[in-house]
Amino acid sequence: MFVNKMTKHWRTFFAVSLTLASAACTQKPEPASALKPLAFGAALVESSGGKQIGATGMVLAQSLVVQVSDEQGTAVTGALVEFSGPAGVSFDPRSGLTDSSGQLSTNLVLGSIAGRYQLTAHTPAKARKPVELKIEEIALGIQQQVGYQLDNKYCARCHNPESTAERVSNYDNLQVKPHPFTEGDALNKISDADLTSIISHGGPALNKSALMPPYGYTLSKTEIEALISYIRLISDPPYHASGMVYAQK
Amino acid sequence: MKNALSSMWQTLFGHPVRAFGVVSLLLLISLAIAPAKNHFSEWRHYQKQYLALIGNRGDAKTLELHFHNHDGIQQIWLPGLGVVDRCTTCHVGLKEASLADVSTQPFRRHPVIPHTLDQFGCVMCHRGQGPATTVEEAHRSTAAWEQPLLPARYVQSSCGQCHRAPLTGTPQLNLGRNLLARYGCVHCHTIKLPDGSAIKPTDDPPSLFHIADKSTREWIYAWLKDPQAYAITATMPNFKLSDLDARDISAFLIANSTPLAGDTAPATKDKDEKAPDPTAGASLYGGSFCSSCHAVQNAAGNVVGGDVGPELTRVGTKVKPEWLRAWLRNPRVYDPLTAMPHYRLTDPQVNLLTAFLGNKADADLLANVHLDAATPEQIAHGKLLVTEYGCASCHEIGGIKKPDNFAPELTRIGSKPLTQIIFLPGMEHSTPAYISAKIRQPRSFGAALKMPQYTFAPAQIDALTTALLALTDRAHDLPMALTVPAQPGSNYQPAGKAGQLMADLACFTCHAINGRGGDLAPDLTWEGSSVQRPWLQAFLKNPGTLRPALIRRMPKFNLSESEITELTDYIMAVYQTPAFDRDSMPSSGYASAQVEQGRQLFYSKYACQSCHIIDTKVDKGYIGPTLTQVGSRLTAAWIYHWLKDPQAMRPGAIEPNRNMNDEDARALTAFLMMQKGSNKQEAKK
Hints:
Chain A has helices at residues 2-15, 142-159, 184-187, 192-201, 221-234; strands spanning 43-48, 53-55, 64-69, 80-84, 90-92, 95-97, 103-109, 115-123, 131-140. Chain A is α+β, with helices and mostly antiparallel strands. Chain A starts with a helix and ends in a 15-residue tail after the last helix.
């Protein structure tokens, strides 16, 4: 069955780019949900579990929790919330009714391609179009996973402005501010070769600040590649490889 | 009917020539079946699709060239690993880096991994049937081949077949292995590793020999009924005991407990002792850095603090004050091997902390627990239950032997044949589904099962499943040469009086020395080469933190002068690196020109101020240790060698290796050795 479908539609299938957000591969919500909403809300917000960095094909560490509230901002119990996302993403549960605090929690497994996953939650509203909420999660492949760990160990102390209980950020203390790795506007313009050069030889290699030390004698070539592939993946706006473009004829 | 048949026979074979023609035709058709079957085979269909796909791309020529070198059925044959994989027959583009934008299977490029396909093939990691040439047989289990494809969410388990040590790229597997040991799974389930050793538990369930000195029967009852109601981080699972069973077990444990001399201390009331300042207890708790190891749940529900020792949110409900007093005075009386250091607290301090912790109570926990005096029948029944539930697998209980192999061995669970598994109705028939369901809700497989209910998050269940799925036949049968062994454990024990002192202070809970110990604090293996004697003495007397941004800190143990001398002597004499002589470079008297050169290098060429502080007014580097007094703390030889290669001095150090030349390293050493700090101020820091 799958085979037949593919033969018929292979052109459309292959046109799907890595941008997983593309509507082409978005799964349609399950037809005719068995659940009937007991109440309707007017707003849908994310309580927790968005913007997580997980791994391809694996359940995210935190559940995704969304909350439905009415016009006055009071939590709505018994509102129906349905989740949807690109092919390969699974939700447990995919839909459900909000609890007494207006929340619904779902466990998320991301697809098997590394990348950013745009997910949607929606809840039907009375006499209006359903309220929609966009949520983004990131899935790392094995290579980016290594980069992520290296980032945590060596880079995040300066490059991540956010402090955690375990790690106080040094970002604010630096005279020349480092680029957070999500800062696509700046980092997307730097080529892989230049990034490799800065990481290996330090800031001065590209006439940048000496506050960025060289890691070429500490990290291996593979590790630096992994780090760059991680930086490219989490960059916002997303990074698109420059150079040869293998567009369709 | 008969007529029709005979007329048909007449038409086809009535005449010898016609009969010859028909027979020839039939023969031709039957001969054509084999090539036709081949022609219409699934894999050929995929290869044609692939050609159509790449024909449309800018780099079609290169891709086609790669393909035409390898069309037909492909096979990766690795006799040493038992791999015969034909997956690349349909998964044609696995090695094509330029197919990064293709998201349709089976033509996706393989994500970058540390291994190549030709080295390991596919089934080593993905399982499934390598030699199969149809989609169904390769991916799913059939009657003859029962190994289905491993779901992507558990794929790290495959790394664990060869890699016994933690890997950077496999956090899920590392977590799972950690949980197996930390949640005590291996107390009941034996897990033998391929190298012959067994996974050892890292939790330390308390002995129940003297439990009545420590806790009340009411608390034990409440704890047995729901351990997580007492402490959300409790690792003890829920055995779903009935009220009566919990009553009888608590009765038995209390009746079975024997008193231990010295593990309780009556309240001492000094007449002169004034009512303490109500904040004094909290500040003593904070100042002793109890939270480096113990967590407390705050009003917002967040658990704050370390996870070395038990959570203390409701400890006042759990322990008796007279026991707590004795414990704080010297925990080693009650538990000689506890990870808790023996603080040298004074009696007023002990009273203060006891009162402070006693207030961390939750009356609701025991509000509905009303137990009548235990009868001998109840106690006997409690003993029976304790044996049945295998409590002694984890806890030492007087008069009950630790059962051997209380639960099934899990040494090869990852290869357990599906035919030997009893699945629940409606459940997917696969080993991963079985294992994770069993961890999620053990009793769903039968109310009479003994395995208790754990409180794991979904990611933890997946991690545990991953760690268990790594325990395959393949993992056990691989030649040792192909495996990456784990670091052998060390049972290093320092000698003599200093060794006893270090055990008493539980140094190894946080510090590692010669491969043994925790990773909460710096490795001390070469501490004697690294620091100067007077600094070490002052530090042991009044430990501060070297890193301003650090939260977990070294407690102050109130050591006596002779204890400090004992420890200092031992550390300075024994913990020395063979790489250099610590006295090979002078601690002062560097030429001012060299010092100035060092300053220049520090601030401009090497920009050390991004992580370190020399001048507290200007520098703001909060990552590495503060260096204001580094010249009185470290030896010059250590600084020099550290600058040359930090990772050689301390593996895993995050300070990058700068490949520094000799002249620069010497000048920087000179500059740093001049940073002696002003004594009083620095002693505070």
